[in-house]
Amino acid sequence: MAALQFVRQTLPDVPFIFVSGTIGEDAAIDALTQGATDYVMKSRLARLIPAITRALTEADNIQQRKLAEQALIESNDQFRAIADSAVAGIIFSDNTGKVVYCNQAIVGTFGFSREEIIGHSVITIMPDSIKALYEARAIPTHKSELSFHTGRTFESIGKKKNGQVFPVEVSLSSWEGQGGLFFAAFIMDISERKKGEENLRLLNAAAEAAANGIVITDKEGIITWVNPAFTELTGYKAEDVLGQNPRLLRSGVQKDAFYAELWATISAGKRWHGELINKRADGTLYNEEMTIAPVLNTNGETDHFVAIKQNIDARKQQEYEREVIFSVTTALRAALTRSESIKAFLQQLETYFNADGVLYVFHDPNSNETWIEQGVGPIGMQVIGSRIPAGEGISHMVLQSGKAYTCDDVNTDPNSLGAETLHDSKAAACLPLFSHDQVIGAIWVKRPQPITDTEMRLLTTLCSLAVDSIQRVTLFEKTQRQYKQMASIHQVGQAISSILNLKIILDILLHNAVSQLGVDAASILLYEPISGTLSFSAGTGFKTDEIAKTRLKLGEGRAGLAAAERKVITACDLTQSKDTFSRVILFQKEELISHHVAPLIDKGEVRGVLEVFSRNRLIPSEEWLELFGILATQAAIAIDNLTLYDELQKRNNELSFAYDATIKGWSVAMDMRDHYSEGHTQRVVDASIRLAQSLGVSGTDLVNIRRGALLHDIGKFSVPDSILQKPDKLSPEENKILQKHPLLAYEMLRSINYLKNAIDIPYCHHEKWDGSGYPRGLKGEEIPLAARIFSVVNIWDALTNDRPYRKALNNEDAIKEMQAEAGKTFDPIILDAFLSNKLYEQEE
């Protein structure tokens, strides 16, 4: 036994056979237990060779098995190292579903430890829904099912230790080994992939459903994908454009430089955004807003381009309409008159609608006439002023219905008139113009190309804007016109009240009539009741003097008819008149087209007529006729007032002459009482007027000075001749009587209104500057100016003419004596004016 133990310790792999003659059964079993290979009894040595052979074979097998086991161990270590480094989870299970192996990825993916997985059923990592399916379906255990499982990959659901379920991809294989059928599963967590696939699905669905066209090209610009919106936008189907270059959409509007800049931008890895005009498959053009972005691969290199395309025709149309509306409203705001507003509007339509002619048709509700008031464009200018017969033509159809009209060839419309058919401009639109629900006119737009529905909508909007603006300017013009008319009426009224010359008043009235009524000429014919005729009195605006020859009987011509029938007579178009009376020559020479006449009536009497003439056709409105009537009334009032004034003036003059003659008679009577004072009154009157004028006195003040000078001694009528003609000095008693004559003059004249303003000289001519005079002792400027002037003249005349009590002085002595009284008897300023201007010499 010791030898057996030694061999086993030193040579464990060498076979050991016991050969013994006496070994018992127990000893043999013990030897085998301690590592002996076999035993042979000496009595049976024949078994030794086979035992040796068998022992060597077994030893060799053991050696081979050990080598295989060592290789397997080494192989398993390599497998585990590789498996644990794998991204995918690896799990082995037997035919009962028990896990015999799992790698580290399984642990990381599911959150279980190896101990919680190995030796346990695979349902550990399955959600309940999969468990039920797994348990309901037997695991295959025979070779017929092996081919079904081997190499199969499918998607399933896994469950983590925390209960979270997630999608997995499983690759399943099986093999048959010792102990039966085994399974190997390679499991990948495909949560991120599923998210990516979902995102990709959503993106694809979004791209397919997108309203904007989407195009994907390779880096060379070849189309690889388009969405349905691209087909709707361009008319090209996907199969028509795949493999093509997007240049097939080019319209030719953009130049090559535009596309070169675009390509340079995206080739540099930058995004390009802009607008362009492209062409559809059917050849029509459309406006497009496009964004092109490069698509980068994992290396950061561009390998595709994505283009987003949007049809912006509607937006461009809106932008265009806003531009047009802004331009039209700006032009209308700049216009100051109705005519300017209409013309500006027509010019805007001509520009923005590429029209050959744009017309403004005006309907006058007063005359019920319709005509083309304004036109622009080469065609529109040809028909300005054309009349449209009542109820005829497309214009009247539009005016009556209030509905717009459009036609691609108006020349073929049987309802059109000559002015409405314009040769090459076949297409036409006629739109009504509404103001407060009333149709006031229409707009024609004519051009060779058809007018689209979109353009008609824009035209309708513009017409609405234009009407508002035109009506606003019209109202402003009317307000200004009425203001001017009021000012004109006021001016004429002032003239009537302040000017006493009929010719001047009528000239003012006629000039205002021409200005405010918008006519070319006007005249007034006055009625002569004795002869029963109308004769020219005043006129303006005529080229010849033919109007001055006018002399008409009542009822003759329009002027005579207006006076006879006492009503306004109008003739809007004399070219249609068949007048044969003498004034036809006037109308021909003056080239007059319209003639309107109003009678001049005041206090029930016809005073004449007011005539106005126009060299163009003039259809009067109610406002015009009202103003015409007012001017005629003013003219009648002016004629009546001045006729009355002339009569009163004549009577006043006659009365004034009578008063002056009476006054002069009184002064002559005074001179006749005293032969020494003969001529005295006339001399002092003339000298007083001259002195007063030199001091700036004028007008009625001079008249009152003259009358006062004539009456200065009127109070002496009560003084006895014995005192007036006494050659010696008067006694104090006589002086007292004489000095009463100013008071007597005052009492005589104060009750006569006609002479009350002339009373200053008779009453105050004996007052003195220093207050020593009589009758009231007035001093300085208390004395009326007229009396101070007369005092100087009166005393000068007394000094230089013979008196009963002394002889006349020469001028030198008289000047010295009067200068001595300056500031005493006389106002020194007035005395200086008399002497320095030598007014006494003029008297002589």
From TrEMBL:
GO terms for molecular function: kinase activity. Residues 655-844 form the HD-GYP domain. SUPFAM superfamilies: CheY-like, GAF domain-like, HD-domain/PDEase-like, PYP-like sensor domain (PAS domain). Residues 1-57 form the Response regulatory domain. This is Uncharacterized protein. The keyword Coiled coil does not apply. One of its GO terms (biological process) is phosphorelay signal transduction system. Residues 75-123, 199-245 form the PAS domain. The lineage of its organism: unclassified sequences, metagenomes, ecological metagenomes. NCBIfam families: HDIG, sensory_box. Residues 152-202, 270-324 form the PAC domain. Keywords: Kinase, Transferase.
